[in-house]
Amino acid sequence: MKKLLIIAAIASAPFAFSANAAMSPQMEKTLVAVCKAGASNSMIEFSSTLKEHRINKQRVFPRLVCNDQSFHQFALSQGADRTAKKIAPYATGTVTIKDIAMTYGDDQIMSVNF
Q: Where does the signal peptide begin and end (predicted)?
């Protein structure tokens, strides 16, 4: 019984800690630097910060949140229009799928009644 309890505790441990997993202080410092550089609207500072911390734009910008806003919204709210324009291609968007079927005008539709 004791072995079963220990196995159950070990097996459930990743689920208990995954929701409360904190990021490392270095990671937090890096992301704060990216947020500050983005708010500055200086493309030189922004580019050098990205290069210094080796930021992968495709991975980071769709997921980065600064002050409870997406990074793109954060840059716009800070008046950093050049930064927002630079990262706009990486911001998440919405995808819609439309059926491209032939549409007929009202005079071409045939109706059949049963």
A: 1-21
